[in-house]
């Protein structure tokens, strides 16, 4: 969904480096068309395009693609030069190896490691958590390299698992679209596991397409999650945007060729429920519509399938700790 929103946790985490370097974070938020009060609302959410603006502004202000979260800055243009260094490689494996060699020229840079073991490939990232206590940088690098790799070969690389070398955070439910598939915390390494066959695939991009890709990347890669292969992602696509005409769980189970009991169990294994998926879709759609002044709160409630605006008020407050009116005021 284009209305898919981003948790305010990631806004606060992205600003940490700028704040530590003495920059006015409130001014950075204003310049990114984000409400200043967002940093004080733990359950608030923001539009992807505003998050992209913030990331790009932070890079420009700090002259640092690591957003002040690394041991030393990674100057703007480093990622682009790495892209030019790998674009003519024959296979994805050669491109990843060359990209890692490029970043090893900077001893303080985050280190990436690629390991191939028969049918599996493992891509791990190591950073200094002293500067990145909320793990925003290391998670961003995982997302960027996964999606860069998918772009290079012209198809989405299916993640079979993601491990994190730290305990499960409070916002772990946000990872479904960032890291689809099985996730394990308190692991030995932070990294991705996928089928090794992708490494043998040829690169389908060239200098021309790289130029277009770099206009908004890697910020755009962080802010616009692609649809995953998880059951939850498939159900989101089946439900779509029309909140007033959603199929029930039994109907969705039939479309996915499984029993309702199996569907519930598999969703439970992914850490969610059918009702939670619907709530999240309604929440994101509501936030998108509240940013559009032409829609009254009553109209939004109707579009979301609520029979009464009071029910919408209660649900929205449960989702964000704010009423629809208070959230709309934040956007102004």
From TrEMBL:
Key word Transcription regulation present: yes
Q: Which InterPro entries match?
A: AraC-type_N, Homeodomain-like_sf, HTH_AraC, Tscrpt_reg_AraC-type_HTH
- The HTH araC/xylS-type domain sits at 233-330
This protein's UniProt keywords: DNA-binding, Transcription, Transcription regulation
Pfam families the UniProt entry points to: Arabinose_bd (PF12625), HTH_18 (PF12833)
What is the protein's name according to its record? AraC family transcriptional regulator
């Amino acid at each position: 969904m284009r209305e898919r929103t981003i948790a305010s946790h990631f806004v606060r985490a992205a600003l940490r480096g700028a704040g530590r370097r003495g920059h006015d974070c409130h001014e950075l938020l204003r310049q990114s068309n984000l409400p200043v009060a967002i940093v004080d609302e733990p359950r608030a959410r923001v539009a992807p395009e505003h998050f992209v603006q913030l990331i790009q502004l932070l890079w420009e202000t700090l002259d640092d693609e690591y957003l002040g979260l690394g041991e030393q800055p990674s100057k703007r243009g480093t990622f682009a030069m790495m892209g030019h260094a790998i674009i003519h490689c024959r296979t994805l494996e050669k491109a990843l190896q060359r990209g890692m060699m490029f970043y090893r020229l900077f001893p303080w840079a985050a280190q990436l490691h690629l390991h191939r073991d028969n049918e599996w490939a493992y891509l791990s990232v190591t950073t200094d958590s002293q500067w990145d206590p909320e793990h925003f940088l290391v998670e961003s690098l995982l997302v960027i390299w996964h999606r860069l790799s998918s772009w290079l070969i012209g198809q989405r690389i299916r993640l079979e698992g993601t491990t994190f070398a730290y305990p499960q955070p409070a916002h772990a439910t946000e990872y479904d679209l960032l890291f689809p598939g099985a996730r394990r915390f308190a692991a030995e390494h932070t990294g991705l596991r996928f089928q090794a066959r992708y490494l043998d695939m040829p690169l389908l991009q060239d200098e021309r397409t790289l130029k277009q890709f770099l206009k908004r990347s890697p910020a755009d890669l962080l802010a616009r999650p692609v649809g995953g292969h998880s059951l939850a992602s498939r159900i989101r696509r089946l439900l779509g945007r029309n909140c007033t005409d959603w199929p029930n769980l039994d109907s969705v189970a039939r479309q996915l060729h499984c029993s309702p009991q199996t569907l519930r169990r598999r969703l439970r294994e992914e850490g969610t429920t059918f009702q939670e998926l619907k709530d999240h879709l309604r929440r994101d759609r509501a936030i998108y519509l509240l940013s559009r002044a032409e829609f009254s709160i009553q109209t939004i409630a109707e579009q979301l399938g609520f029979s009464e605006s009071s029910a919408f008020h209660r649900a929205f407050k449960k989702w964000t700790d704010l009423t629809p009116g208070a959230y709309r005021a934040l956007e102004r």
